[in-house]
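Lab notebook, page 48
Experiment: co-folding of the full assembly
Goal: obtain a model of how the components sit together before planning crosslinking
Operator: M.T.
Materials (sequences as entered):
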Amino acid sequence: MPLYIVPTPIGNLSDITFRAIDVLKNSDIIFAEDTRTSKKLLNHYSINTKIESFHKHNEHFKLNSILKKLESKDKISVISDAGTPGISDPGFLLVRESLASGYEVFCLPGPTALIPAIIQSGFPTDRFVFEGFLPLKKGRKKRLEELANESRTIIIYESPYRVLKSLQQFIIFFDPNRKVSIVRELTKKFETQFRGTISQAIEFYKKNKPKGEFVICISSSKED
Ligand code: SAM
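Observation: model returned without errors.
Model output:
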């Protein structure tokens, strides 16, 4: 049996595909980043499949037992707390090792925060670079220096506690008039979007304390 990577909602429980529900219902086991978080979703859709944990602290440890289950032809699904496993979430290691061991991997299309963030930014979508979470310390300065000249739209995941600090750091490296689009709480009740320059975003978040989940899109360094 192949390994199924199954995207789950990033806030709005209705954002799940019929196929995702079907695959989860018909799996022998679901590996979830946080079983308690995922139980809420699974209960909502009356999915009674057995569930086990698979997160960044045990993914190496669990790898062999999951590969053994694939060998026994178990149908296995992997979900994360929200969005698509493998996107700033565990998944990559298991996918790589499953393929290396000769198993097929199918990733269902579905929710992820980066795609709505870039689409509603209004910035070019023909070429973009997804940076996930920037390194916190080691390598951060070098990464920002590289991004200063990036001509593609940049997408960054950021925690609410660091949004303002990061923006204040961006103007050291980037043109302060470079445009940003910052989405907060996508698909949720308090979804908002800020659009403007980096300097304007700093002023905005000094007055409006960042709360919730954030994606920052930065326009091309070559934009007029
Ligand atoms: N696997 C997820 C995906 O496919 O997008 C990402 C998981 S990562 C641990 C969590 C980060 O994704 C958050 O810190 C935020 O940057 C972004 N994110 C997830 N859900 C979001 C939402 N509803 N609104 C805005 N950003 C979100």
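Interpretation: Residues 10-11, 80, 82-84, 87-89, 112-114, 157-159, 183, 185-188, 213-215 surround S-adenosylmethionine (CB under 6 Å).
Next step: discuss with group before ordering constructs.
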